[in-house]
Amino acid sequence: MLDKAGIISEYGRVLEIPFDSDRKLMSVVHTYKDGYRVITKGAADVLIDNCLLTEEMRAEILKKNDEMAKEALRVIAVAYRNTDYIPDNPEYNLTFAGLIGTADPIRPEVTNAIKTCIKAGIKTVMVTGDHLTTACAIAKELGILRSNDKTLTGTQLAAMPQSRLEASIFSYSVFARITPKDKLRIVKAFQSRGAVVAMTGDGVNDAPALKASDIGCAMGINGTEVAKGVADIVLADDNFSTIVEAIRQGRGIYENIRKSIHFLLASNIGEILTVFLAIFFGWQTPLLAIQLLWVNLVTDSLPAVALGIDNFDEDIMLHKPKNPKSGLFSDGLGVTIFLEGCIIGILSLIAFNIGTIKYDVTTGRTMAFTVLSLSQLFHSFNVRSTKSIFCSETLKNKYLIISFIICSALQIFVVSVPYVAKVFKVNPLSHVQWLVVLILCLVLVMVSELQKKFSRTKEVSLIPIFNRQKPTKL
């Protein structure tokens, strides 16, 4: 075994020319016997131009370099020369020493993360300084480079106008032999096409591209402080799959926020319409202030919280990305909320009129109050998912079930216990009246089920049409 410390002590380093992404070389000068030895390493296709080689030898080296690169090896060429003095420019007239291939094993979870990105409509691109052959071999193994995808080298990119790059940017999946300036051009090209760009990097040279991207992701373990400083996110484990998990979490949180807002606005529109329409038609007040306060504090609050902490849908990473310019009420959510609120309000007024006409005003208010409360509780299950309320997923949110049981029990308690009913100015309901209330509450569930079924049927009928069109990457 070689004694590294002894070798360094015997052959001291007197000069170092650090690696440069433009030169793609790195050189050192060490003391050696009675003179000095220059050792240079770097890209094989660049280094051979500085070596004393015949055309046959150059061709053989490049052939071997490609063979190693196809095996997904990062290939480094090494050359040297002996000299009697310390040269100002040591990187010439070198003697070629050989090729070194290093393997960077792919983490098992990364391949699955790439597959998840593809399903989620996220285009993953490899931007690297490695040789094109090496980059393609790794990209194919990961699933980044597929049959119809193109590749681009730094030389080709330098000769390409920005307008042409922007027009064809989505057709490329691998960029090799790329400089820091090239990375910035690539990021801006994707952004010019309306894409939201997340860029990963760890070096000082990555800082401009990290800053220009919509989401800069720096490596927490191997990343430089400069990269971490300009990044929006720092990956503590330097793992690409962490980014994919963050996307899943973000999508889930966004959907839960939409669910809570959907439920609250539909419920409140129902309450407003119940009172407004009664005033408009000159009827007696269907709900008293204390009853409205109860609905807002109890019936609305617990289900909204439960929806906000709902489990994420298993197929959430199968949805296409949201347009960043689309609002919270896009995809018809605003219209849906308004119509559902109208139904809740109308059902409450129907209960009020049935109770008032057949019995008395207090009974009518009791029935309206109960329908308004319970219909909202049933509606929380409608809001939870675009799937049927009768599927097995309905039972997955235990907090929503608990909130439904608690709120329903409290509502029955308020109406059925004489002392409490007196406070809320309601009457205990008979079996027939409870049956009417339950039927009216289930009307909203049935309407929602029909709407979901119609939406699913419409979505399925559109699939053959989309399949006949040229697929888009956006």
List strands and helices in order, with pairings.
Elements: H1 4-10, E1 13-20, E2 25-32, E3 35-42, H2 44-47, H3 55-70, E4 74-83, E5 95-102, H4 108-119, E6 126-127, H5 132-142, E7 150-153, H6 154-158, H7 162-168, E8 172-176, H8 180-192, E9 198-201, H9 207-212, E10 215-219, H10 225-230, E11 233-235, H11 240-280, H12 289-299, H13 301-308, H14 333-358, H15 361-384, H16 398-416, H17 418-424, H18 431-467
Parallel strand pairs: 6-8, 7-8, 9-10, 10-11
Antiparallel strand pairs: 1-2, 2-3, 3-4, 4-5
Characterization of this structure:
- This protein is α/β, with parallel strands linked by helices.
- It folds into three domains: 4-102, Calcium-transporting ATPase, cytoplasmic domain N; 108-243, HAD superfamily/HAD-like (Rossmann fold, 3-Layer(aba) Sandwich); 252-467, Up-down Bundle (Calcium-transporting ATPase, transmembrane domain), CATH 1.20.1110.10.
- The protein is 55% helix and 14% strand.
- It has helices spanning 4-10, 44-47, 55-70, 108-119, 132-142, 154-158, 162-168, 180-192, 207-212, 225-230, 240-280, 289-299, 301-308, 333-358, 361-384, 398-416, 418-424, 431-467, and strands at 13-20, 25-32, 35-42, 74-83, 95-102, 126-127, 150-153, 172-176, 198-201, 215-219, 233-235.
- The strands form three sheets. Strands 1-2-3-4-5 form a five-stranded antiparallel sheet.
- Strand 10 (215-219), helix 10 and strand 11 (233-235) form a beta-alpha-beta unit.
- Helix 4 (108-119) packs parallel to helix 11, helix 11 runs parallel beside helix 14 and helix 14 packs antiparallel against helix 18.
- The model is unreliable at 459-474 (pLDDT under 50).
